[in-house]
């Protein structure tokens, strides 16, 4: 008896610890991962929310009713000395009909708004801005083309931060380059899969400017838990200014500066096999990428130091409280030690190489 009580208490403690660690993720003061799906900040998330609560309360009501009925039955009909067997109701047609019809009615009531919401959220508004979201192990890429203010044929590629205009519908066109991933921005919408060879649509809209956190929500390999992103909603003018900045090529640093040395390291250490930087004039001392970039696609670094690109490496660096430069040093020195399995290898860079690379990466605004 005593040992049973003890193991029961232990199980209770383990459960409590798990429950509390889950709350960590949604506690408002944990800047690291404010992934609260009960705090809608846009019309689509609100649509899901206003479906969730009625269904939740109906389910909660049924739960309480069933539990009470069980408790009452256990006490009223428990076996006592001299008690006869209670009346059996097996095969009672009236009762069978009642307890089939009531659940059917409840389910039908829930089904109507559910189906309506599901269909509503499937298709984007025809005039909404389309932004491609491409999942990679373990980071999200965002591509912009055919957007007002962009010349025909121009394309913007960025990573980790998806910049959108606030208070406007954006249609995220979801794709994957490798395995199945899932793009989840809890405050703006529910989860949706990114599937290789298929396009899925996700409607996103934020009421107010702000940063909305995202996370890959499908286990996709070793560093799945380190695959995050941010949606940065900004006022319309700022969005247009951002587009204009992104269309600018990178400047080539002055010779003899640390940034210039950093660019030399970038070209000689193999970085160009996986990373693109779009320069003003590709002939100027800049070799063509040796391997066609489709062979291995790493984040486009042209605007690595953009003001909205506050995080890198799947938006997990810098870690909470760490400064950007320290994190970047750590990353360049040994990526797989930060993200297990990372496709960016340890390239055996010297400390001087890393310092110069950082000096150059800082110029890529
Ligand atoms: C074999 C391919 C490969 C090579 C070579 C490579 N990288 Fe990377 N790099 C990647 C991948 C993939 C990522 C994304 C990793 C992640 O987030 O999981 C990345 C991420 C980065 C990032 C963060 C970018 C962001 O916005 O998240 C920087 C900066 C970077 N690499 C710089 C370099 C430099 C400098 C070199 C050369 C010294 C280099 N890389 C060599 C594949 C490569
Ligand atoms: Cu993933």
Q: What percent of residues are in strands?
A: 15-25%
Average per-residue pLDDT, rounded, comes to: 89
End-to-end separation: 68 Å
Q: Uncertain runs with pLDDT below 50, 5 residues or more?
A: 26-30, 283-287, 289-295
Q: Sketch the topology as an H/E string, one letter per element.
A: HHHEEEEEEEEEEHHHHH
CATH superfamily of one domain: Cupredoxins -  blue copper proteins
In the CATH scheme, the class of one domain would be Mainly Beta
Q: What ligands does this structure carry?
A: heme C, copper (II) ion
Strand adjacency order, main sheet: 3-2-1-5-8
State Rg: 27 Å
Put simply, the count of helices is 8
Number of DSSP E strands: 10
Task: Write a structural description.
The protein is of the alpha+beta class and 365 residues long. Among the domains are: 118 residues, Sandwich (Immunoglobulin-like); 104 residues, Immunoglobulin-like, CATH 2.60.40. The strands form 2 sheets. A 5-stranded mixed beta sheet has the order 3-2-1-5-8. A 5-stranded mixed beta sheet has the order 4-10-9-6-7. It is elongated and about 100 Å long. The site of copper (II) ion (CU) has 8 residues, from loops.
């Amino acid at each position: 008896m005593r040992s049973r009580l003890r193991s029961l208490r232990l199980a209770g403690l383990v459960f409590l610890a798990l429950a509390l660690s889950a709350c960590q993720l949604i506690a408002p003061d944990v800047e690291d991962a404010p992934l609260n799906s009960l705090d809608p900040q846009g019309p689509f998330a609100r649509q899901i929310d206003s479906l969730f609560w009625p269904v939740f309360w109906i389910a909660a009501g049924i739960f309480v009713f069933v539990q009470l009925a069980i408790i009452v039955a256990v006490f009223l009909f428990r076996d006592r000395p001299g008690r006869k067997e209670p009346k059996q109701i097996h095969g009672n047609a009236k009762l069978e009909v009642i307890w089939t019809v009531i659940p059917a009615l409840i389910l039908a009531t829930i089904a109507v708004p559910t189906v309506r919401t599901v269909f509503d959220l499937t298709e984007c508004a025809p005039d909404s801005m389309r932004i491609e979201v491409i999942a990679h192990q373990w980071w999200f890429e965002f591509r912009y083309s055919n957007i007002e203010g962009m010349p025909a044929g121009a394309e913007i590629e960025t990573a980790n931060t998806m910049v959108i205009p606030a208070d406007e519908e954006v249609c995220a066109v979801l794709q994957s380059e490798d395995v199945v991933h899932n793009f989840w921005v809890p405050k703006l919408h529910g989860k949706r899969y990114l599937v290789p060879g298929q396009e899925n649509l996700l409607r996103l809209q934020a009421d107010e400017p702000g940063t909305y956190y995202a996370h890959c929500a499908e286990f996709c390999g070793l560093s799945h838990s380190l695959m995050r992103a941010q949606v940065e909603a900004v006022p319309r003018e700022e969005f247009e200014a951002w587009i204009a900045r992104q269309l600018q090529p990178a400047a080539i640093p002055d010779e003899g500066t640390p940034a210039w040395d950093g660019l030399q390291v970038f070209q000689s250490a193999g970085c160009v096999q996986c990373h693109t930087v779009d320069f003003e004039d590709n002939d100027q001392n800049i070799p063509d990428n040796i391997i066609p970039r489709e062979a291995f696609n790493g984040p486009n670094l042209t605007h690595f130091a953009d003001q909205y690109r506050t995080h890198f490496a799947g938006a997990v660096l810098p870690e909470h409280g760490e400064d950007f430069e320290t994190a970047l040093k750590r990353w360049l020195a040994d990526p797989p030690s930060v993200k297990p399995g990372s496709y960016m290898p340890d390239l055996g860079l010297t400390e001087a190489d890393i310092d110069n690379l950082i000096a150059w990466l800082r110029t890529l605004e």
